[in-house]
Amino acid sequence: MAALITAADLGIDTSTDQGLFDWLLASLLFGRPVPQQAAASAFRKFREDGWDTPSHFTADDRHPLWHELWDGDYHRLSSVMSEELRDVMRGLIADYDGSVARLVRTASTRDEVSQRLQRFKGVGPKTAEIFLREVPEVLIGTG
Fold first, then answer.
1. Which end is more exposed in the chain, N or C (fewer Cβ atoms within 10 Å of the end residue's Cβ)?
2. pLDDT attached to residue 1
3. DSSP-derived 3-state class of residue 76
4. What residues does each domain of the chain span?
């Protein structure tokens, strides 16, 4: 089995607010049954093209998001993922003012972070597990 792609492999520092957002985005991509390299490629494409805040993902027209996924080699499930990303980012904005750091820092435990993530449509235990494996323990419950 191939080694798991980590946040560090993608140049993400999960100790920062932006890094937590980036890792959530990557985790959402990795959480679907697609090859890791396809998920990593799609993440890199988003980063390269400046998709660095939740608001970039929430437009009513989903075609730019779908094209971004497709251009990033995320072909399998690209339609499903474009809807999921929009829904998660809208929920993140509504519930946590668009801040993944706020989601993490205001939770008391890792389990609470997991539960919060799984309230978003399309996010299951595996995606939450992927996200949490890279979140520094010291960030949880600090806000």
1. N
2. 46
3. coil
4. 13-139
